[in-house]
Amino acid sequence: MIIEPRMRGFICLTSHPDGCAQSVKNQIEYIKSKGDINGAKKVLVIGASTGFGLSSRITAAFGSNAATIGVFFEKPPTVGRPGSPGWYNSAAFENEASKAGLYAKSINGDAFSNEIKKQTLDLIKSDLGQIDLIIYSLASPVRLHPVTGVLHRSVLKPIGQKFTNKTVDFHTGIVSEVSIEPCTEEDITNTIAVMGGEDWAMWIDALKAENLLAEGASTVAYSYIGPSLTEAVYRKGTIGQAKDHLEATAFEITDSLKSIGGKAFVSVNKALVTQASSAIPVIPLYISLLYKIMKEEGIHEGCIEQIQRLFQERLYTGNEIPTDEKGRIRIDDWEMRPDVQEKVAALWKLATTETLPEIGDLIGYKKDFLNLFGFEFEGVDYAAEANEMVAVSSIV
Ligand code: NAI
Ligand code: NA
């Protein structure tokens, strides 16, 4: 069938298999162009199908020849209806890995559940023995708690007071004011339950209990800080509470891994267009201004550039891993450069529907957004019939 983007609100309902495959190939080429990374050889990526998790899997596999197991929650295609982009990304990744002689298998299901954890542990036991790196890169709006059975929903709200600021609808380019009512106490608890560190710790505990962690194994989860502009709705809002919890959990996991000399890290990454971040009010306007400045300065990065730098210049230099005063790895260093932030803050004041096309990178934002779904890639013939029924046997 011929597949075109079909938008509904902040999501795109369709995705293009060939475009997703192109995106994966481009990322693989980038990693190969940067040379070998002396990294982990047996890697589990939880949240492996899109965004930072997919880039982490690609970096491990094609930078260090690692065997990878990916866990994600994606929709396979059915006749006449494309699958989700993460499904196509993973299918493409597995095909490329297999061509390169690299072990790659994936488990498609709810990573928060006991069943998917058990299935993953069984696969590690039978195929890899022990894991030496676990990347934790889930972004989800809900979590069904495996012990209590409670369905938690995360929210993106300010705490204590109403937040009002500018935002942009990146489809129409209209800049408007948005107000978000403060959250309830329950919202905070729920958001921490979904996006905090409890599930990360559960994964590591389960792996450790079954002796599936190699001596010196490490684990990395991803966090975000961002500027004061977005603080009220992000870092000091409900999601920020969850990130605080995630960051605190890193220390608990490190303690629990003492006996095997293992360590847990949080890496603070740059703001990027992903399915998760497009849904957060205010962030798209910030990103479109940030992109403009970072591109002008020649320091713009996407997920793959960020993760390549994380692996090569932070995790696997052979020296101690550099962290900030709170023990976090920082690859948001270029985003947070004072000169970059000053310029973004100045543009923020000027941003209106009329000025944004000039002062912001709305075009770049839109392209990145469409790229998430496999659209607007060079080298893909979008007028041609696509085969949406891509088949891969290594995804279960
Ligand atoms: P994403 O939406 O691209 O990826 C989320 C991944 O989680 C996908 O592989 C998806 O299949 C998987 N997933 C979601 N629910 C699942 C479930 N129940 N079971 C199994 N898999 C599930 O998100 P993105 O942006 O890559 O986020 C990953 C992490 O990076 C998050 O912790 C996010 O907060 C963090 N981060 C994101 C930034 C951004 O600007 N996008 C910036 C800094 C950190
Ligand atoms: Na991810």
UniProtKB/TrEMBL annotation:
The EC number(s) this enzyme carries: 1.3.1.9
Keyword line: Fatty acid biosynthesis, Fatty acid metabolism, Lipid biosynthesis, Lipid metabolism, NAD, Oxidoreductase
To which species is this protein native?
Flavobacterium cellulosilyticum
Function statement: Involved in the final reduction of the elongation cycle of fatty acid synthesis (FAS II). Catalyzes the reduction of a carbon-carbon double bond in an enoyl moiety that is covalently linked to an acyl carrier protein (ACP).
Self-association and partners:
Monomer.
Which parts of the sequence belong to the Trans-2-enoyl-CoA reductase-like NAD(P)H binding domain? 2-78
Q: Where is the site labelled Plays an important role in discriminating NADH against NADPH?
A: 74
GO terms of molecular function? enoyl-[acyl-carrier-protein] reductase (NADH) activity; NAD binding; trans-2-enoyl-CoA reductase (NADH) activity
Q: What's the protein called, per UniProt?
A: Enoyl-[acyl-carrier-protein] reductase [NADH]
